Amino acid sequence: MKPAPTLSSAFLQPPGQTLPAALLALRQQRGTALADLPLPTRKTENWKYSSKYLKLTDEIAATLPVSGTPAAAAPGYCAVLRNGVLVSDASNLPAVAGIRVRRFSELSDDEAATLAQRLDGTLDRQAVQLAGLNSARFEDGLLITLEPEAVLDQPLFIIHETGAESSGSAFPRIYVDAARHSKATIVEEYTSSGTAVAMTNTVTEFTLGDGASITSVRLAMEEQNVQHLGATGVRLLDNARFESHCVGFGGPLRRHDLQVRLEGPGAECKLNGVVVTQGKQHYDNHTTIEHIAPHCNSEETYRNIAAGESHAVFNGRIHIHQDAQKSNADMNNKNLLLNNGAEIDTKPELEIYADDVKCAHGATIGQLDETSLFYLVSRGIGRRDANVLLTMAFINELVDQIPVEAVKETAQARLSDFFDQTFQEA
Hints:
By secondary structure, the protein is α/β, with parallel strands linked by helices. Helices cover 18% and strands 38% of the residues. The chain has one domain. InterPro entries: Fe-S_cluster_assembly_SufBD, SUF_FeS_clus_asmbl_SufBD_core, SUF_FeS_clus_asmbl_SufBD_sf, SUF_FeS_clus_asmbl_SufD.
């Protein structure tokens, strides 16, 4: 029997040593745990459809250098990270009472020790195995702290740029600690420059205290030479609210694991996601919502569009724990195939151990309705424009809900490019 492939020792090279001792010790611990780590295969359930796209070759094992000039930053508050490290000169960090944005390398020994105890605490590391690679390799990171009652008056854009002028990997790391009744909108945009083969392995964690409210917007737009492995973990305490809007454009491999834990009574989350793929691209979304405390609400809506010979995957899991009485959970996944060669795999899961709950889940996969197309064309609309109208209508409900206008405009522009490449005038 052929042995299962394991993570190459090239990925276990010692990273830089600029962090406080507690974070260096954490990295060392996580790196030791990665030795002989089996890589996902088709027999790995949560990588069943994506393992063949994962290319962890020695070519990309090195850490990408921070040198280089990042692209123009977003207006307003922004933190620009190039290959996982903050570029201070290109950033405009908020100067708002009760809100601090600091590099891991700037923390005191006591602050770093506290952070080291909390990193990875929001994620199921067995389910998100390759998040451990980030924990072993991050060169630096951002700690965003919101004190009680603090409110960020405008969105904070975190621009993650993978500079692929040479082959290698970047390991961005973000930790958001939102204290009681604080509020913020945080936008993460993933972009790239350069044409060498590269990978982004990113982890973002949120901890929300009592009554805190965080809106997270995530936009994945790297070029076709960059693999993306992303994980987001969220813990919510009493009456906290987390709202997520994820928009993803396909690549050689795009993977995002989103795990939300409703740990306090009255906590609630809303998860929206839109994915489009074309050519031979691949995108895989895995979401998990853990209803641990009673009286919690969750709402999840993801929509995928696949064209060409591309492949999209959605795996959504809702777990209602025994003590999570009075839970209210709803999951909906709709999928649109634009070509016979495209493929979408969807797997909604609902696991309930409480008896006083309201839960529903569903999934659909279909193609554009020929009757609707005929109706539009018969009224003088070109077939290409009719295709665009119907396809945009399929996802526009979710795009319109993005609460940051600049992100909405960026997403719509990229979608317009997608339509131009996918539909030709008949």
